[in-house]
Amino acid sequence: MTTADPDRVALRYVNEINRHDVAALSALMSPDFRFVDGLGQEVRGKDRMREAWTSYFALFPDYRISVRDHLTLGPVVALFGTASGTYAVGTELPVHNRWSVPAAWRAVVREGLVVEWQVYADNEPVRRVIDPKHS
Q1: CATH class label, 6-134
Q2: How far is the C-alpha of 126 from the C-alpha of 87, rounded, in Å?
Q3: DSSP string for residues in the chain
């Protein structure tokens, strides 16, 4: 396998998410990158996604993806595992703001770059942490 194999690219993307390395994430995104969150909201374009990752890592400084399994079919990689993090209050990470959810991700890889990253997860636990009145 080469480093341009879709599964290797997708797993490298996960690794850079876990390292919170926005520059490395950007280097793995195509210019026409498309992100779709668990609610179907989209962010289009590498520059906008770079800003989105920077903001997300500020909200959840310990955000992490754990991949248990992954499957590849041509340029599409499906990953299965958990996402977790803690909603920051200033520089503090209160234990009651911690969340973890089962999740899946769909990556589409073209010419060694991630073209699309879609998240499938229940956002309700995260919303309850951010806004306890939301329950």
Answers
A1: alpha beta
A2: 8
A3: --TTSHHHHHHHHHHHHHHT-HHHHHHHEEEEEEEE-TTS-EEESHHHHHHHHHHHHHH-TT-EEEEEEEEEETTEEEEEEEEEEE--BTTB--GGGEEEEEEEEEEEEETTEEEEEEEEE--HHHHHHH-GGG-
Task: Give residue 1's pLDDT band: very low, low, confident or very high (50, 70, 90).
Answer: very low
Q: What is the pTM of this model?
A: 0.92
Q: Are 37 and 119 in contact (CB under 8 A)?
A: yes
Residue where the block lists tokens 């998240």: 119
pLDDT score, position 130: 86
Q: Please state the domain extents for the chain.
A: 6-134
* Half-sphere exposure in the Cβ direction for 133 (13 Å, CA): 0
Q: What is the pLDDT of residues 13-57, one digit of tens each?
A: 999 999 999 999 999 999 999 999 999 999 999 999 999 999 999
